[in-house]
Amino acid sequence: MRVAVIGGGPGGLYFAALAKQLSPHWEITVWERGAPDDTFGFGVVFSDETLDGIAQADEEIHEAMSAEFARWADIDVRYRGTTLTSGGHGFAALGRRRLLSILQERCAALRVDVRYRTGAPSAAELAASHDLVVACDGVRSATRTAHADVFGTELDERAGRYMWLGTDKVFEAFTFIVDEHAFGTLQVHAYPYDATRSTFIVELEEGAWRRAGFEEYARRDHPPGTSDEDSIRRCEELLAGHLDGHRLLPNNSKWLRFTTVRNRTWRHGNIVLLGDAAHTAHFSIGSGTKLAMEDALVLAASLHEHPDVPTALAAYEEERRPVVESTQRAAQASLEWFEHIDRYTGQDPHQFAFNLLTRSRRVTYDNLRVRDEGFTAAVNRASAVPPMFRPFPLGGLLLRNRVVVPPTALHTAREGIPGDFDLVHLSTQALGGAGLVLAGMTAVSADGRATPGCPGLWTDEQEAAWRRITGFVHGQSDTCLGIQLTHAGRRAGAAGAAAGVDPRPVAASALAWDERSPVPREADRADMDAVTADFVSAARRADRAGFDALELQYGHGHLLSGFLSPLTNLRTDAYGGDLDGRLRFPLEVLHAVREVWPAGKALLVRISAADWAEGGTTEADAVAIARALAGAGADAVDVSTGEVVAHETPRYGRSYQTPYADLIRNATGVPTIAVGAISTYDDVNSIILAGRADLCGVGRAQLHDPLWTLHAAAAQGYQGPAAPWARAWRAGSGRPPSARTDRIPPRLELLRQPAASVHRRWLPRAAAAPAHR
Predict the structure, then answer these.
(1) How many CB atoms lie within 10 A of CB 328?
(2) Which of 75, 198, 399, 607 could form an SS bridge with 435, CB 3.0 to 4.6 Å?
(3) What is the pTM for the complete model shown?
């Protein structure tokens, strides 16, 4: 088999070495346009997981790398004159130049044909003369560019600026430096990689970068291979307090914008992309070299395990893509956190450090507590109460904890009347321990239902049925009970037809939900007056029915959401156009409801903060909408996203909507509820403690386990008033015994070993003592 590898970086060389090791008879040629000792960048960080894979795959490479690793376990956060340290993380780093040397030596020993200072023929040419072409030609891959339509390439270039530097100051830990200046926030990611050097990445938001004067330096001519020396000297001046007289070291160092590379597929015939050519992840969450070497391992293994190239390439992509996409989701969250770091620089040092460390949602409250309990205790201010079980004032209510059961569409009502299933559902959820339980998708009129099975609140009979439910719930529990009111707008056509009313729903504009839905009629003044009156009447009924909180549905493509989104509001009158126009009618409804809803209760509004479609609601719009809603009397904003247009393309993932609650809370100060794939108490604790939201909506997990909140308390050993068990269920409040939990292990050590320290610094100068302490 003839294999061509384009690019002699770590990914290409490691693949060549592994493939040759598995199949010595293969003819493998690597084209590298640079010299053997050419390299850009400084240190490369590896996780223990990746190192375990390298150790298993090629012991010689692993031993050579391990002999020169810088190892440490601490992360330092330098912020507002303090340095806070979190231990127990575990890092290993190596100079990129040394890593390349190790891989080059291994390829030479295995007799891989590596052609330095030689540009590769095009991938198409190589594909005609070779059985396989592996394109490892980097983030600006010529191979990918030549076949971009096949690969389905998406390049997401961010606005922020960063510069990759080194320094002769040897940091003892992974160090985040956050310096606030008049021009904005200057941040640094620094870590050691040998006994004399550290990597030092400087990053700024675009506006801060310009205000700091770096734009002028960047405009000057910097030929290939040279560095922006003026910017480097300026960085040395600004960061002198952290460099302690040491220098910043350039290596083709210029200001860059980070580009996230995604591809629909990594394969084209017998051509395959590997490493940065296929995908990138922001440097704040991981190493591109690490990902490339993991790719190389899986590709070499797949070629060995499968009978032909097409099958092997499909297996490679199938195995690697989920891993890469998970890393990219975490990296995207981290990238955006640093892009908007000014949202958080008002936090106190402990909360800020916790927020920074949990920014990607991979590291969590529990994760940090296991690694370094002292750090988490300091963030918690030594409170024994988990963050999720701390009370929160919401309007005129005091919620006993931060868990909200969001509105659930049960579709079990008849003629809009909630029945026994609604009673069982809501009472079970209330007894399950949440601070607030919301009844879902309740229509304010017969033609405002999304489906014929939706409950309503426009008749006396419906009001009485709700009063029966709230009376039972309040008789059994002090959980606050709320109801969501809505008019489904253009999503209400089928329900209207079933109710015997006009099957054409009323909407902001005459746009059908999808091709199977009726075209709605554009709401006129009379329609808007009627809808406002329906919301006011339903709010009065909700109060009389005994609800403690009211939520207005302004999201998910329902009527009032239709007015807010530029994708669904095409009006040319005073209720359309710019955001002020699109807000006008939703604010009229909110003002009217606020007048009749008691001040001693809570008034919430749910919004879709993003439409997940081009041309939709922007982040700036979401912030302005939340600010306007709070100004009109909303006590909190329930921050959801999507379901506004049928052609949406959401990026699902764990707690994927939380960044929007975070954005609104920290940009406006308005209390927010975070929702969307929040399913563990660890995530709830992390979100609350980091200040990303004030409350967390836990939906599907509560359906899976209606006692989710109480079980979360038991799992954390919390038995306080924020998680009360009903008297009849109190016997089940402790965790039941499981297999072997009663076993007490015997002592088998003659001398007890001292507990290992969670803190380990990189101290290369202590030559006579072990480097790892």
Answers:
(1) 24
(2) 399
(3) 0.91
Asked whether the beta carbons of 332 and 260 are under 8 A apart, the reply is: yes
CB 187 within 8 A of CB 179: yes
pLDDT (average), residues 742-748: 77
Residue 499 pLDDT > 90: no
- Under DSSP, is residue 394 helix (H, G, I), strand (E, B) or coil? strand
Residue type for position 20: K
Which amino acid is residue 348, in one-letter code?
A: D
CA distance 175 to 162: 16
For the segment 378-417, what is each residue's pLDDT rounded down to a tens digit? 998 878 899 999 999 999 999 999 999 999 999 999 999 9
The H-assigned helical ranges of 119-200 are: 123-129, 142-146, 148-151
- Tell me, what's the pLDDT at 769? 39
pLDDT at 741: 60
| Structural tokens at position 621 | 């719009």
Give the containing element (helix H, strand E) for 554: strand 549-554
Q: Is it the case that residue 472 has pLDDT exceeding 50?
A: yes
Counting every residue written for the chain, the total comes to 773
- At 768, phi and psi to the nearest 5? -80, -15
Question: For residue 695, which amino acid is it?
Answer: L
Cα separation of 456 and 176, whole Å? Answer: 53
d(CA 27, CA 15): 13
Can you read off the two tokens belonging to residue 772?
Answer: 């790892």
Distance CA 510, CA 489 (A): 11
Name the packing angle between helices 59-66 and 96-109 (round to 10°).
Answer: 150
What band does 493 get if pLDDT is binned at 50, 70 and 90?
low
Burial of 134 (0-12, 13-18, 19+ CB in 10 A): buried
State the pairing for strand pair 132-135/248-249. Answer: unpaired
pLDDT at 360 over 50: yes
Task: Specify whether the CB–CB gap between 404 and 698 falls below 8 A.
Answer: yes
Say whether 525 sits in a helix, a strand or coil. Answer: helix
- Which residues share a beta bridge with 76? 85, 175
Residue 325 CB coordination number (10 Å): 15
CA distance 420 to 489: 28
Strand partners, 203: 162, 187
Q: What are phi and psi of 357, to 5 degrees?
A: -70, -25
